[in-house]
Write a structure and sequence with these properties.
alpha/beta, eight-stranded mixed sheet, 7 helices, 10 strands
Length: about 270
């Protein structure tokens, strides 16, 4: 097949990025023609012509044997999904929480050196710290700095109850409440310790302690109680490590918690 292209047509093909091979013109008609390439770059965005639609032939019916009846279609039942491990909830749901036994943060503090206005004790409920070393790691160190700023490092009855998300298939750690019993276990801890205030750090802890699902900003704005004791909700140390802008709001919440304790302590002293 040969193409007889004039100069204008070659220029158009070159602009389109098409390589055209042409036969060199020679004086002797019997001599083999040399192929001369016209080399151009093909643009990556050049549209390709659409292939013409092909008409589909009508489907031919398949003849069924007369002597044998058509077999009925049989659909095998889908295999049942494996049951989720106990305490982990439905597949795809967030793992349930476990509550570790509360522990003293500053057990060697002399009660005589405790500043006034801090109440009879504090209970801190939070997630994201190691239950074995609650003041270790970056989140634990920040928690320690927060409590020191509040002078709670000089209080002998500051407890922390660490919440933990268990790994899939993990067994309940010794001393930790089962997932379904977290709210009841926390209420029992508060009833036993009778803290002056329950400091709830983080949205996860607020859901576990209060049974509420509102955004943390809304939970921070209203007073709460846990097992009859006043509670204040604010951001947790792990979140503050990621969001430095929330530290000012957290400090405002902590000052409000101190004010509640001092007000309750003053009311008790006046009534006595």
């Amino acid at each position: 097949m040969s193409l007889n292209l004039d100069a204008r047509q070659r220029a158009m093909l070159q602009e389109m990025g098409v390589t055209v091979w042409t036969r060199a013109e020679t004086a002797a008609p019997q001599a083999p023609a040399a192929m001369q390439p016209v080399t151009v770059a093909v643009p990556a965005t050049a549209p390709l012509p659409a292939a013409p639609a092909m008409a589909q032939p009508p489907a031919m019916p398949v003849a069924q044997p007369i002597s044998a009846p058509a077999a009925k279609a049989h659909t095998a039942p889908a295999p049942a999904a494996p049951a989720a491990p106990a305490g982990l909830g439905a597949p795809g749901a967030a793992p349930a929480l476990r509550l570790h036994a509360p522990q003293l943060l500053y057990p060697t503090v002399d009660p005589a050196q405790t500043p006034p206005g801090l109440g009879a004790g504090w209970l801190i409920v939070t997630e994201g710290i190691a239950a074995a070393d609650p003041l270790g790691g970056d989140a634990g160190k920040l928690l320690d700095n927060i409590l020191r700023a509040m002078q709670l490092h000089r209080h002998p009855r500051v407890f922390v109850a660490a919440l933990e998300r268990p790994a899939p298939g993990a067994r309940t750690a010794e001393g930790a409440a089962a997932p379904a019993d977290v709210a009841a276990a926390l209420a029992e801890v508060v009833t036993t310790l009778q803290p002056a205030l329950v400091l709830v750090l983080g949205h996860v802890a607020a859901r576990a302690a209060l049974g509420r699902t509102e955004p943390l900003g809304r939970l921070r704005a209203v007073p709460h109680t846990v097992a009859g004791r006043p509670a204040v909700v604010t951001y947790d140390p792990a979140f503050l490590l990621r969001s430095q802008d929330a530290k000012a709001a957290t400090w405002a919440d902590l000052c409000r918690a101190l004010a509640l304790v001092r007000k309750a302590e003053g009311s008790t002293a006046n009534s006595g």
